[in-house]
Amino acid sequence: MRELELYFGPQHLGMVGNFSITLKVEGDRILEATANPGYLHRGFEKLMELRTWIQNFPLVCRINVVEPDPMEMVYAMAVEKLANIEVPERAHYIRSVYLELSRVSSHLFGLWAYSNMLGFDTVAQWAMYHRDLILDLFEELTGGRVYHIYIWPGGVRRDFPEGFKDRIVNTLHSIGGCVPDYDSTFFNNRLFYDRAKDIGKITREDAKKLGAMGQVLRATGVKYDVRKVESYAAYDSIDWDVHTREDGDAYSRIWVIRNEMIESVHMIFKLLDAMPQGKAYSKVLNPFKWKIPKGEAYVRIESSRGELGLYMVSNGGDKPYRVNFRTPSYTHGLTILERLLKDASIADVGNIMISLYVVAPEIDR
Amino acid sequence: MISALKNELESIFKDIQIFVPENSRLIISARGAMILTILNFLKDKGYDHLALISCTDWIEENEFELIYIISSYKADITPVGNKMPDEPVDQRAGVDNRLNIILKTRIPREDPRFITAIPVFENAEAYEREIHELFGIDFEGHPRLIPLFLEREYEIPPFRKDFDTRKYVKDFFDEIPFVENKEK
Amino acid sequence: MMEKLEKNKGSFLGAFKAIRFLWKRPKTLRYPFEPKEPALRYRGFHLNDWDKCTGCGNCADICPNEAIEMVEIPELASKPKEGIKNERPRLDYGRCCFCGLCVDICPPGSLSLSRDYFHIHFDTDTFTFIPKDEKLDNEHFFPAEEYSVLKASLSHRKKDYEGFSSDLEYSLFEPERVPMPEVRPEARKLSFIEQVIGYSKEEAKKEASRCLECRLCEEACPAHLKISDYIRAIYEDKPEESLKKIFEDNPIPAICGRVCMKYCEDACSLSIRGEAVAVRWLKRYVADIIGDYKTALELKPGKPTGKKVAVIGAGPGGLSVAYFLRLKGHEVTVFDSLPGGGGTMRIGPPVYRLPIEAIDQDVDYIASLGVEFRFNTTVGEDLLFEDIRRDYDAVYLGIGTTRSNSTRVKNAEKCLLALNFLEDNKLGRAVEVGEKTVVIGGGNVAMDVARVALRLQNIQHPGKEIMTQTVSLEDWDIMPAKEDEIEEAKEEGIRFNPAWGPKEVVLGEEGEVKGLQCVKVKSVFDEQGRFSPTFYEDKEMFLEGNMIIEAIGQRTDFSFIPEELFAKLEFTERRKVKVDENGQTTIEKVFAGGDIVNTNLDAVTAIADAKIAAEGIDRHLSS
């Protein structure tokens, strides 16, 4: 059979975001895959060197279009570490609730992408609807639906409005009440099992060798979650579990995502009960004069895709000297994807890519 | 545990500086090819996750600085269902998985070259490709240093400090009109 | 529940349970017929309240996309003394990212974001617009009945639709000032200790970090000091650079740092919803922490020009004009009748506000530049004015207002005059005060007189019941003294009697003062605003006092100018000496500035006049 070169290009119904893969194909089998990122390269790390510390903060959330909140959190944590700023207790709890809501909304988005790609359009639309309810909550809290610009160095930007706690609880109950429908239609569907079992399988040693984190690692059985390893915000004050499975294929990864989503909902209830009163923001210095002493810092948090890290260097001035984001989709989308696509079939390219939870804007920044 | 690691590194390797800013970060400065030896040593010890390879342009000191950040995958392996894993609890004693080790090295700005870290960590390939493209540093032994993000050639690699973004926009795309200019 | 699901592979039929959604109401919103209300904090288009907006430009400075520009609106008035500029922000919605940082930094809180977010138009010029709000812009804002989402745009907006607005607790500026350590009233009224202790280095840096660099203060200051720059130098811990910046426009920081009228702080944009940056205390901090100015400043007199200038009066105006002219290279001699420099500053403000060491710190530096000071020299007695005018190439009159006015009521010659009382006290001569004192007047000088009298009473009659009270024609709303001075006087226990006028000084049998008979004031100014008090003749009050001091204003002593020259001197309608744009009077070679020229009557306006006159003298001498 002939060898053909196909472009699983930036416009494709099975692609999420602007990302392209060049496939060398023989029949239905892929011989070699090369990832082609770069369609969304906006040069954020260079742009952030030209703006002051507070002016960067509306810029930082636009790096990852699908879930902007962990980016704000990691930037605020790095600045607080370099400048030695204390965050009040209530702000830690608000940040944790906010990040968990973002995680639920991001997992619903991923569920939309995956089930849409497999052909389960009904479940995809349900997931988008429930995500929209969570975006309504964000709109009430922060003023924007997608780019919230809420966590900044020193705390959070505004406190909870009146009666917000009850609205969170009601929305999450209505989403949680639909979980049996999701299970019977998608997660427990034999078609999903046949399409996803043993597809994109990665062993535990390979995952560790290739730098995998997040669901890719947890689906191979390793109980690693940055929220437990290097706890930040209010995660060490409540009881919660890390979910794993042992097979390492697409089926396990999607099941880990489902379990994590339900765990996040329970975590939000616990955090709302334990939230103390107090201030939600401790003022930072005037933005026109704020200079941060020399130093460097590496902070990391667990976004919904894996370990999100930020390496920041300050030169003693009023602008960052070097900002470098370590995004989870970087290793998953470039190294692991090319490895797993070898000997896969064309129909499974989207399957593998979305189950690895790759988002294109995170790779390019 | 950090001080034990620090003492061990200082006794084995000469000519490195170690700095402990807080109890979960260790910063090691070394020169040249010793970086790979240290990376190998730490990987054998149990720090087997390469998180990031980054680069900073210290234009006033005429040097580039390469930064390698590694940590450990040590965590419990869970039994799910009836299947028991081979080793349920990660036995690597003496390894702290909260510890992030930052290795730094400096290379001169006129002749930016370094050795690739792919023999030690396989996922270094994508990071080195990015640094080559954006900073212009050559990694010897890298199998494919082809462009990753950028679509055209630039005279100065764009993330260097002497690359002027406004001048580039003006030369390439012409003046962007502000409202007053349009009215004229 | 999770383990049960993981064991089996799943079934085909479970999905059919979803068919029941076919008969349920769809969740899709049929927008725009079923409208969706944005949340209360939504970040949409801008609203700007032009009554509160001061044109400071902080929003334009912080925008990360440079979307805001300040444009001049000719219909509005600029009021520099109140800190209002006639500029307003203009938005470019092609660049705005609706982050709301401009709302968080706006000091008056006038900018906010609304809940409108639609705009569709063929013409891109409509996307740059100057935001107003529904108070000012009636044609574009509609109430809910007339508003339709289908027509929504920047010119069809909804009334009462404010979204994300400013909150002082979460703002990016700090509205509270670092408190200045001061001696408490119970302690300070017992002695002449300096009331204000001064900032430490940490406090000064923290206070300096509050300044937003909008520069409204620089326009309000009569001498246009470079305030933002010298405050920035304090924040960066470079007091020498700060002193250099101050000395470009003001050579007497130790004096001004204690007694300036601080027009800058009244105009500061932080003072609208908080406390102004303490510009005056920071200037004093710089003067205190450096101490000896010579090591910090490297100023040298200019190349000698061979011209000589005489300055009559070593007050703020005279010292400044001497400094500026010396830097240009002229030879300057300053004459003053007092034993040291400072002019009215040396005898007027009491020691607890302006100690003599502070005055000497400034005067000594100016003398070290080569200016010759001839103290204890009264022009008109020790020297004649015509001789000075003949021997020198130019003369500057910085003579100020040195004579106190009198009420001239019956027996007023038994009263003391304010400036004489203060001068005796400050220069160390003994003054005996009785246990009850009455001060006539409501201005800053009256406050000083009353507080000095109170301290002397506490020192000379300890433990006895003492009383100092003031009587003024003006009621609280038009009392001319500054508010903080009135507050401090009240804290120390001085009693005020506003809207009472003096009628007669009552004497005892041996001619000693027993008290003041007062009559109730009906009005102070007439309809044209001229000073013409009227009284209720039937309402009277007697205030007991064995010493009465009059502090109702000062006038200038022109007696040293001979008759023929004085006739050539022209005055303005406000009875001030008329000067042209070079500061020159209508007499040849004679320039003037300070209290005899302007109506502000304070130190910093004298310095501003002196700067103009120094340029004028320099031009006159080089032509």
Question: What does this molecule look like?
Answer:
- The complex is a heterotrimer of chains A (365), B (184) and C (623).
- With 365 residues, chain A is an alpha+beta fold.
- Chain A has a single domain, classed as Cytochrome-c3 Hydrogenase, chain B.
- In chain A, 46% of the residues lie in helices and 14% in strands.
- Chain A has helices at 44-47, 57-60, 69-83, 89-118, 121-142, 164-176, 179-187, 190-196, 204-209, 215-218, 226-229, 250-274, 328-341, 349-355, 360-364, and strands at 3-8, 20-26, 29-36, 151-152, 155-156, 222-223, 295-303, 306-314, 320-326.
- Chain A has a 3-stranded antiparallel β-sheet with strand order 1-2-3.
- Chain A is globular, with a radius of gyration of 21 Å.
- The mean pLDDT of chain A is 88.
- Chain B has 184 residues and is α/β, with parallel strands linked by helices.
- Chain B has 5 helices and 8 strands, in the order αββαβββββαβαα.
- In chain B, the strands form 2 sheets. Chain B has a 5-stranded mixed β-sheet, covered by helices on one side. A two-stranded parallel sheet of chain B has the order 7-8.
- The model of chain B has no long low-confidence stretch (mean pLDDT 82).
- In chain C, strands 10-9-8-11-22 form a 5-stranded parallel β-sheet, sandwiched between helices. Chain C has a 5-stranded parallel β-sheet with strand order 13-20-14-15-16.
- In chain C, helix 13 links the parallel strand 8 and strand 9.
- In chain C, helix 8 packs across helix 11 and helix 18 runs parallel beside helix 19.
- Residues 1-5 of chain C have low confidence and may be disordered.
- Chains A and C meet through helix 2, helix 5, helix 7 and helix 8 of A and helix 1 and helix 3 of C.
- Strand 6 of chain A pairs antiparallel with strand 5 of chain B.
Brief summary:
Chain A is an alpha+beta fold and 365 residues long. Helix content of chain A is 46%, strand content 14%. In chain A, helix 4 (89-118) runs antiparallel to helix 14 and helix 5 (121-142) packs antiparallel against helix 6.
How are the SSEs ordered, and which strands pair?
The complex is a heterotrimer of chains A (365), B (184) and C (623).
Chain A: E1 3-8, E2 20-26, E3 29-36, H1 44-47, H2 57-60, H3 69-83, H4 89-118, H5 121-142, E4 151-152, E5 155-156, H6 164-176, H7 179-187, H8 190-196, H9 204-209, H10 215-218, E6 222-223, H11 226-229, H12 250-274, E7 295-303, E8 306-314, E9 320-326, H13 328-341, H14 349-355, H15 360-364
Antiparallel strand pairs in A: 1-2, 2-3, 4-5, 7-8, 8-9
Helix pairs in contact in A: 4-5, 4-12, 4-14, 5-6, 6-12
Chain B: H1 2-12, E1 17-22, E2 25-29, H2 34-45, E3 49-58, E4 63-71, E5 76-77, E6 100-108, E7 113-115, H3 124-135, E8 138-140, H4 165-173, H5 179-183
Parallel strand pairs in B: 2-6, 7-8
Antiparallel strand pairs in B: 1-2, 3-4, 4-6
Chain C: H1 2-7, E1 46-48, H2 58-62, E2 68-72, E3 87-92, H3 101-105, E4 111-113, E5 128-129, E6 141-142, E7 157-158, H4 185-188, H5 201-208, H6 216-220, H7 227-235, H8 239-247, H9 253-259, H10 263-267, H11 279-290, H12 293-296, E8 308-312, H13 316-327, E9 331-335, H14 344-347, H15 356-368, E10 372-374, H16 385-391, E11 394-397, E12 403-404, E13 416-417, H17 418-426, E14 436-440, H18 444-460, E15 467-472, H19 483-492, E16 495-498, E17 500-507, E18 513-525, E19 531-544, E20 547-550, E21 554-555, H20 563-568, E22 590-592, H21 603-622
Parallel strand pairs in C: 6-7, 8-9, 8-11, 9-10, 11-22, 13-20, 14-15, 14-20, 15-16
Antiparallel strand pairs in C: 1-4, 2-3, 3-5, 12-21, 17-18, 18-19
Helix pairs in contact in C: 5-7, 7-8, 7-11, 8-11, 9-11, 13-21, 17-18, 18-19
